Amino acid sequence: MKRSPTAAPTRRRFLAVAGGVALAPLFVRSARATPATMAAAIREVVGEAPVREGKVTLELPPLVENGNAVPMTVTVESPMTAAEHVKRIHVFNEKNPQPYIATFHLGPRAGKAKISTRVRLADSQKVVAIAELSDGSFWSASADMIVTLAACVEETP
Amino acid sequence: MTQALVNVPAKAKRGEAIEIKTLISHPMETGYRHDTNGQPIPRDIIHTFVARYNGEEVFRADLHPAIAANPFITFFTVATESGVIELTWTQDHRDPVTQTANITVE
Amino acid sequence: MTSVVICFLISTSFAAEIPQDERRSGTAFMTRETQAMQEDDRANPGMLAVLDGEALWKDAPPGAKACAGCHGEAATSMKGVAARYPTFDEARGRPIDLEQRINLCRTEHQHAPAFTWETRELNAITAYVANQSRGMPITAGTDERSRPFVEAGRALFNKRQGQLDLSCAQCHDDNWGKRLAGSVIPQAHPTGYPEYRLEWQSTGSLQRRLRSCVFGVRAEPLGYGAPEQVDLELYLMWRARGMPLETPAVRP
Question: Which terminus of chain A is more exposed, N or C, with fewer CB under 10 A?
Answer without folding.
Answer: N
